[in-house]
Every structure is written in structure tokens, then in C-alpha cells.
């Protein structure tokens, strides 16, 4: 194999790693936040990352809860969002087609269910809808 062929392979591998890093992982070393975002059929991974950014800067407590109680975000759900303990208690399902702000609200709602599970509290849709509503009120400017 020639030097040029090896260089081309190396460049290809570096690009592949960067694309995977950009699309499928959210890593914030400073805040110890490490999330995996599964491949999306609709291309919504960047919307998920924007939603996480909204939480990080507009609602730090929600961001901290996300980083603590969620490990994987599956962006292939066709509804709003879903939390199933039978999958993996640290996985939430989110539909990113609603845009970054509503995706952030869905993430907060589903993270609320994960918190209920790990804190051994009863599941309450009312509580989690309330958390999502609070976020929307905080990030919406009229």
C-alpha cells in the first residue's frame, strides 16, 4: 500500500469518527454529561442536540437531571415522547420533528419519568406534564 493510500484511509477514518461524534454523541466533560443519541430515520439528531443546548443554558437544573437520569436518547419515536422501563431505564424516546423548543420540553417530560423510576416514586403524567409546561414558560418570550 502506498503512502498516499494510507493517508487517504486515515483521513477517511478521521472524518467518519468526527461525523459519528457530531451526530450520535453529546459529551460535556465540564458537567460530566455523556449521552448517546441513536441514529435517526428522520435526521433529527441535530435537533436533539439543539434541545439539549436549550436545557443547558436556559434550564440548568433540567440539564443536570437529564445528564443524571438519561444515558440514551432514541429519536425514532413517532409520537411526542415515551419512557419504557422495559427497554433500559436510562433510555428515553423522543420525536425531534417538533423543533428544538418542543423537543426540549419532551426531553424534560421523559426525564421526569426516569427520575420517578430511579427515585422509586409512582409514575405521574400530571407531574411530568407540569415539568414540561414549566420549561416552556421559562424559555418562551412573548
Task: Sum up the structure in keywords.
elongated, 142 residues, alpha/beta, 56% helix, 5 strands, five-stranded mixed beta sheet
Strand line-up of the largest beta sheet: 1-2-3-5-4
- Domain count: the total is 1
Regions with pLDDT < 50 over 5+ consecutive residues? none
Share of residues in helices: 55-70%
- Secondary-structure element order, as H and E? HEEHHEEEHH
Number of strands: 5
- Main sheet properties: 5 strands, mixed
Q: Based on CA inertia axes, which overall geometry fits?
A: elongated
For the record, give the distance between the C-alpha atoms at the N and C termini, rounded to a whole number: 62 Å
Rg over CA atoms: 17 Å
The number of helical runs is 5
Query: How big a fraction of the residues is strand?
Result: 5-15%
Strand-pairing-aware structural class:
alpha/beta
Mean of all residue-level pLDDT scores: 89
Chain-wise SSE layout:
Elements: H1 3-24, E1 25-28, E2 33-37, H2 45-58, H3 60-69, E3 72-74, E4 81-82, E5 91-94, H4 100-118, H5 125-139
Parallel strand pairs: 2-3, 3-5
Antiparallel strand pairs: 1-2, 4-5
Walkthrough of the structure:
This protein is α/β, with parallel strands linked by helices and about 140 residues long. The protein has one domain. It has helices at about 5-25, 45-60, 60-70, 100-120, 125-140; strands spanning about 25-30, 35, 70-75, 80, 90-95. Helix 4 (about 100-120) packs antiparallel against helix 5 (about 125-140). About 30% of the residues are buried.
Amino acid at each position: 500500500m502506498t503512502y498516499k493510500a494510507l493517508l487517504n484511509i486515515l483521513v477517511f477514518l478521521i472524518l467518519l469518527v468526527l461525523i459519528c461524534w457530531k451526530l450520535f454523541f453529546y459529551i460535556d466533560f465540564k458537567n460530566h454529561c455523556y449521552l448517546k443519541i441513536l441514529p435517526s430515520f428522520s435526521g433529527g439528531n441535530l435537533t436533539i442536540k439543539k434541545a439539549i443546548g436549550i436545557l443547558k443554558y436556559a434550564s440548568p437544573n433540567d440539564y443536570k437531571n437529564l445528564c443524571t437520569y438519561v444515558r440514551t436518547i432514541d429519536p425514532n419515536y413517532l409520537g411526542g415522547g415515551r419512557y419504557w422501563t422495559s427497554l433500559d431505564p436510562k433510555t428515553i424516546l423522543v420525536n425531534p420533528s417538533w423543533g428544538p423548543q418542543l423537543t426540549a420540553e419532551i426531553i424534560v417530560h421523559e426525564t421526569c419519568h426516569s427520575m420517578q423510576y430511579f427515585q422509586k416514586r409512582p409514575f405521574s403524567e400530571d407531574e411530568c406534564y407540569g415539568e414540561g409546561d414549566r420549561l416552556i414558560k421559562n424559555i418562551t418570550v412573548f
